[in-house]
Amino acid sequence: ATPSEEKDLVIIGGGVAGYVAAIKAGQEGLKVACIEKRGALGGTCLNVGCIPSKSLLNNSQIYHQTLHDTKNRGIEVGEVKLNLKQMMKAKDTSVAGLTKGIEYLFKKNNVEYIKGAGRFEDENTVAVELNDGGETTLRGKNIIISTGSEATPFPGLEIDEKRVITSNGAIALEEVPKRMVVIGGGIIGLEMASVWSRLGSEVTVVEFLSQIGGPGMDSDISKQSQKILAKQGIKFMLNTKVNSGDASGDNIKIEVEAAKGGKGQTLDCDVVLVAIGRRPYTKGLGLDKVGLETDDKGRLVIDSEYRTKIPHIRAIGDCTFGPMLAHKGEEEGVAAIEFITKNYGHVNYGAIPAVMYTHPEVAWVGQNEAELKEAGVKYRVGTFPFSANSRAKTNLDTDGMVKFLADAETDRILGVHIIGPNAGEMIAEATLAIEYGASSEDIGRTSHAHPTLAEAFKEAAMATYSKAIHV
Ligand code: FAD
Ligand code: NAI
Q: Where in the numbering of this chain does the FAD/NAD(P)-binding domain appear (predicted)?
């Protein structure tokens, strides 16, 4: 091993949380190195998560729309053919461009990029097994762990990423499966079900709970989403649990039964997607060498300044508490560096938006109705349907609604839930409103350009404290 190099900060894991922290540290003048083992920066999000899935969602939607939704718009198309190889290539091009972009940003901000797997030697020393062979060690005054997460496996179903797949396989299938079963109707399950169903697969989503969308999605919105996705051809089995699976034959067999118990049923398919959640990834880090522990869910335990019990070792992103979202990790990346350099940092965990990129999109921020009821908060509801919005009507894309939840007494916005075209962009306005402590009346009295989808947002706000104009 070469002699240890002294750094102000060593970051283990170059995903969104880690690379943002690295860039911010470079900008603040810290001597920083970021260790990443996958051979590319950007982590799960850029390489096998957010970015490739959104590329496939976008292009499969264009394909689907070209097949089914052009005639009434006055567009006559000839034969429409899927070129899956090219669709995957387009995805790979987007991914490569973005991951290379981060390498450029590292150089620009004096971040040293070390390609290899890091593990603790002691509280200040990280040994790196280099991807190109050999080893090196780094010494850090500060260390940030940002090693991310991995798909939670399903007991008894061995993942081969060809027929028994996680999202890693689902973004890289070489042909459209005839029949696909998706275990878990959370965001990964629904986004991937959308992609493959649009491309021609018969998709069945099996969900243990009584509603789809995973934790956080408002029940009204979840029901609408399910109805619309079912109309697009996705089959749903709710209140149903998968007990086991057998992929030994050509025909994969998935055994399901009612969540409360009862008569079992066998589902046959060609590909099964396991999408039952993700778990923190800290394998091979040598946590035991420094006496760091994880909780019962595998998360690194930290305080409000991201410090583990060894104060100069911090943890951010998917490997610790909070929603497993890229933008949450980014916020933590910046805040952790500010704690190191300035002794303060801030992330508002009450204002982190969530988006499901199906068509239409679903997006929300703040609390949902069930959460408010449980907390005993008195609230008012205001809704507005996209079917009454002029832009949605001109776009012939009118499914969905905006739903505001505001405090009954103060009118302060507590949550916004949207299903509809471009919901993922629109939620930014709601997030800003919550961050600034706005009331629904603040939004209702703010001019929104006409004709835009955002007018539905304004009118839902109006409906919360008064009445909407256009319904
Ligand atoms: P990761 O991105 O997982 O990065 C951790 C990195 O650390 C990895 O690259 C890993 O190789 C590296 N590493 C681990 N151990 C070591 C070690 N010992 N030495 C060196 N390197 C190591 N979130 C959104 O907000 N929006 C989306 O649209 C979205 N879509 C998603 C779609 C899919 C299919 C999936 C799976 C996830 C999606 N997510 C999305 C979630 C998002 O990808 C994660 O929240 C985000 O990547 C977490 O960032 P992170 O930096 O904490 O971890
Ligand atoms: P999830 O936790 O959102 O959903 C998993 C679903 O599987 C739950 O609804 C659960 O009830 C169900 N389930 C669990 N065991 C089951 C069983 N045996 N049978 C039937 N159903 C079962 O997890 P998911 O979808 O895997 O996503 C993981 C994380 O990745 C999310 O929490 C999210 O943070 C992130 N992500 C974010 C995206 C975005 O922001 N657009 C996109 C994709 C992932």
A: 7-333
